[in-house]
From TrEMBL:
EC number: 5.6.2.4
Naturally occurring in which organism (per UniProt): Sphingomonas adhaesiva
Record family assignment: Belongs to the helicase family. RecQ subfamily.
Highest taxon in the source lineage: Bacteria
Name under which the protein is recorded: DNA helicase RecQ
Keyword Iron attributed: no
Keywords, alphabetical: ATP-binding, DNA damage, DNA recombination, DNA repair, DNA-binding, Helicase, Hydrolase, Isomerase, Metal-binding, Nucleotide-binding, Zinc
Domain Helicase C-terminal: 218-362
Cofactor(s) it depends on: Zn(2+); Mg(2+)
Length: 412
């Protein structure tokens, strides 16, 4: 990449974007100043740019740690598409020797690796012999046992990072409650004042949370009053099929998506949804990652999501175009019972985190106050008391009997 002097011209010249979004500028400035940073930014906020841009401006290679090979290859293509010199070093890459050579020659802006490789002696020796501009640790919540996606390999990164104490480090995540954040800072050796949190509010999404009586009928009603494409999240594969059958009666085109389908069927259904202007897709949470469809008008949950983070991420697929969109969650007391049962089966060390996540969800579901306020506070933002665009703000409940049901299952 040609040397570029300042971040804004680099942004124009490399990415062709007119301006930074939100906290990107602040994060990039810290990275260029060599300051260790944790960037907490919602999905779609543009985290990748926070290290891609510096990678083009700094001498040496930005080493990016990323947890999934599939994501890494998406990122690789995106980086190469804007002309960055990028490579992945994973078990499925056949050109590993070439990539090592390019790194040593200073011919790479970005080198993507999985955490298990990053912690090997081989990789450490490679880094010793080349020039590292920056460590970027994507999905950094994976380092925390409090996080919803703990990956033990992330714990092995610290010795590698500490071997290069002068190389700046940038940790990135969309999903961090207060506890997880503190843990990420601690685990990765980032100072507390090095954390930057972006705005999580999605004002065009109307949040509604309703006890379940007959979910297919309730969701059919939702569909009837909500034109445009939508996603219905169902907890089991069989459940998605059943839901699709019921919803076919609404007259809207309906498709199914879950990991049990043939890859070709999955791909076809996803492609049909992305192109459609009125399709409803009944899916497990396997659906959505990396899908770029701006005009999703509703996201319905036919049961409790895994965590507030998951709820935020899944509902966040609605209304990316900024037009009004609806997030409607239907829940039952048995969801909490099942979740508690599941928690009892996980490793004891992880149980407190899981319980805290369930309690946080319980608070969201049972509140008679503003849903958005609970979401935003969860992500560390100070919300106004009322948002004017959730069920409780629009129709303040007189008395919430569901409260007691959820409470019972949370405290039993
Ligand atoms: P995240 O990792 O935070 O979910 P990505 O890095 O994948 O987000 O970016 C999401 C999308 O936003 C990408 O298509 C990216 O090109 C785009 N994007 C990032 N920064 C900007 C910007 N400053 N202006 C316009 N689009 C941007
Ligand atoms: Mg990302």
């Amino acid at each position: 990449m040609a040397a570029v002097s300042d971040p804004v011209s680099a942004l124009h010249r490399i990415f062709g974007f007119p301006a930074f979004r939100g906290v990107q500028e602040q994060v990039v400035a810290r990275v260029l100043a060599g300051q260790r940073t944790l960037a907490v930014m919602p999905t779609g906020a543009g985290k990748s740019l926070c290290y891609q841009l510096p990678s083009a401006m700094l001498e040496g290679t930005c080493v990016v740690v990323s947890p999934l090979i599939a994501l890494m290859h998406d990122q690789l293509r995106a980086a190469q598409a804007v002309g960055l010199r990028a490579a992945t070093l994973t078990s499925v890459d056949e050109n590993r020797a070439e990539t090592r050579g390019r790194f040593l020659d200073g011919d790479l802006d970005l080198l993507y690796v999985a955490p298990e490789r990053a912690s090997t002696g081989d990789f450490r020796d490679l880094l010793d012999r080349g020039r590292i501009a920056l460590f970027a640790i994507d999905e950094a919540h994976c380092v925390s046992e409090w996080g919803h996606d703990f990956r033990p390999d992330y714990r092995l990164l610290r010795p590698l990072l500490d071997r290069f104490p002068d190389v700046p480090r940038l940790a990135l995540t969309a999903t961090a409650d207060e506890h997880t954040r503190a843990d990420v800072l601690e685990q990765l050796g980032i100072p507390h004042d090095g954390m930057i949190v972006a705005g999580f509010d999605r004002p065009n999404i109307r949040y509604t949370i309703t006890p379940r009586d007959n979910t297919p009928r309730q969701i059919a009603d939702l569909i009837a009053r909500t034109p445009g494409p939508g996603i219905v999240y169902v907890q089991s594969r069989a459940g998605t099929e059943k839901m699709a059958e019921s919803l076919a009666r609404t007259g809207r085109p309906v498709r199914v998506y879950h990991a049990g389908l043939d890859a070709s069927v999955r791909a076809a259904n996803q492609a049909a949804f992305v192109e459609s202007e009125d399709m409803v897709i009944c899916a497990t949470i396997a659906f959505g990652m990396g899908i770029d469809k701006p005009d999703v008008r509703f996201v319905a949950h036919a049961g409790l999501p895994k965590s507030i983070e998951a709820y935020y991420q899944e509902t966040g697929r609605a209304g990316r175009d900024g037009d009004p969109a609806v997030a409607h969650l239907f829940w039952g007391a048995e969801d909490f019972a099942r979740a508690r049962q599941r928690i009892a089966e996980v490793e004891p060390a992880r149980q407190p985190g899981e319980r805290a996540r369930l309690t946080a969800l319980g608070a969201l579901v049972e509140t008679a106050g503003c849903r958005r306020a609970i979401l935003l506070r969860h992500f560390g933002e100070q919300p106004p008391e009322t948002c004017g665009n959730c069920d409780n703000c629009l129709n303040p409940p007189a008395a919430v009997d569901a409260t007691q049901v959820a409470q019972k299952y949370l405290s039993a």
